[in-house]
Amino acid sequence: MTSGAETTRGARLAPPGPPRRATFGLLKKLFTDRLALMSDSAEAHGDVVRIAIGPKTMYLVNHPELAKHVLADNAANYHKGIGLQEARRALGDGLLTSDGDVWKKQRRTIQPVFQPKRIARQASVVANEVEGLVKHLRDTEGPVEILHEMTGLTLGVLGKTLLDADLGGFTSLGHSFEAVQDQAMFEAVTLSMVPQWAPLKKQLRFKESRDDLRRIAEELVEQRLANPIEGGEDVLSRLIATDGTREQMRDELITLLLAGHETTASTLGWAFHLLDEHPDVAAKLRAEADEVLGDQLPTHDDLHRLPYTARVVEEVMRLYPPVWLLPRVAQADDEIGGYHIPAGSDVVVVPYTLHRHPDFWPDPEKFDPDRFDPDRPSGRPRYAYIPFGAGPRFCIGNSLGVMEAVFVLTMVLRDLELRKLPGYEVVPEAMLSLRVRGGLPMTVHTRNRR
After folding, report:
1. Are 240 and 248 within 8 A, CB to CB?
2. Which of 204, 245, 219 is nearest to 93 (CA)?
3. Which sites bind heme (predicted)?
4. Are residues 435 and 269 in contact, defined by beta-carbon separation less than 8 angstroms?
5. CATH fold of 88-324+368-446, please?
6. Is 351:387 a contact under the CB 8 Å cutoff?
7. Which residues lie below 8 Å from residue 102, measured CB to CB, with a gap of 6+?
8. Which residues are known binding-site members for heme?
9. S-S: 388 plus which of 99, 120, 174, 395, CB 3.0-4.6 Å?
10. Are 79 and 331 in contact (CB under 8 A)?
11. Contact 410, 131 (CB under 8 A)
12. How far apart are CA 321 and CA 317, in angstroms?
């Protein structure tokens, strides 16, 4: 192919993209810098890009209206794709990886747990968990690995709010999910050409982690079966009430444990990094926390009284959307932006690049929470900002995740200052979620609020 659009068989126009001679460079980026692969392709070739790497061809979609077409208007034609297909080996057919009628049934089962009134009732649980985190950080000597702390927090919140269970005893969860993500992405970028039986260290670690996650999920089910909650509204109770198989309950729990903690933990890690880089933003957030909360814990009603903190969370998710890639597979031929998309093609909507599209985001690399100020007209299309996905598969837990992130930032910054270690380089790592490579060590300083 050439770098420009070309006509395919039957006079159908194929999108532009990198030439075949660029395959080696593309392959290198696929392994080492997937964000650059997507960003550079969009910058060079436009809003629909055909990226051919060896036997694999994928189509990058980078415009709000075209993203709407894939994710909402013609969603039935696009099933889950690259990365999530590979994750199915560990997650099974949970809500994240399933399609069709199976997915619809799972969504109906889980949806009531996330009803707004029920989530509002969980605010005190979230605030108490964050209060425990603040006390822990204050008492810690030396640097803390903030991503590890956020993982522990978000798992604790997930257990108490969604499962009505204490996950504190399952200390291996975070490490096991990390191994699952690593393996899923490894299989995706190697096109699953490495045999699963090959005794590679990465694959052995994956198998151990998959077994660990299954053990934990099955133990949670056994605990609830032995101690049922009459009229329970939590996920465990609802899964048991559906009379699904043990395997189905296990898959759903593993999926929920991953999706329910990883995205919020990742967002909080990026937030602490950006707030350390931008002390003026941190100062505004602290001033709002002092004024609204004083010495009290936040309530659900306080969310609308913390608008600046909410804008900080929105801007963090614009620059570093936890779900940076929304992969799909076209079930039938389609046309996107005037270009032909063959059936069976991998189509990717990339929030990371879409959130930086210069036509919709002035000065897109700048960290500016006030770009989400409702009094500042933006004129942006709805699908220019999709940190929680869009269409039928819009993230079911978005309201809980935002409440948790707002509570963490306002309570931590009210009482503490977190500073990155001098000279520490923060590098994004695009796995199933967008995380900080190698963690985020920070020092903790108690704030004098006189």
Report:
1. no
2. 245
3. 395
4. yes
5. Cytochrome p450 (1.10.630)
6. yes
7. 93
8. 395
9. 395
10. yes
11. no
12. 4
Question: What are the structure tokens assigned to 84, written together?
Answer: 């999530």
Burial of 380 (0-12, 13-18, 19+ CB in 10 A): middle
Phi, psi of 107 (to 5 degrees): -65, -45
Question: What residue ranges do the domains of the chain occupy?
Answer: 88-324+368-446
User: What is the total residue count of the chain?
Assistant: 450
Q: State both tokens at 349.
A: 């909507």
Amino acid at 261: H
Contact criterion met (CB below 8 Å) for 133 and 422: no
Contact 147, 439 (CB under 8 A): yes
Please report, in range form, the residues annotated as the binding site: 395
Q: What angle do CA 276, 400, 109 make, to 5 degrees?
A: 150
Burial (0-12, 13-18, 19+ Cβ within 10 Å), 218 = middle
Q: pLDDT digits over 43-68, tens only?
A: 999 999 999 987 889 999 999 999 99
The pLDDT tens digits of the residues spanning 213-261 come to 889 989 998 988 888 888 888 888 888 888 777 888 888 888 888 777 8
- Residue type at 147 in one-letter notation: L
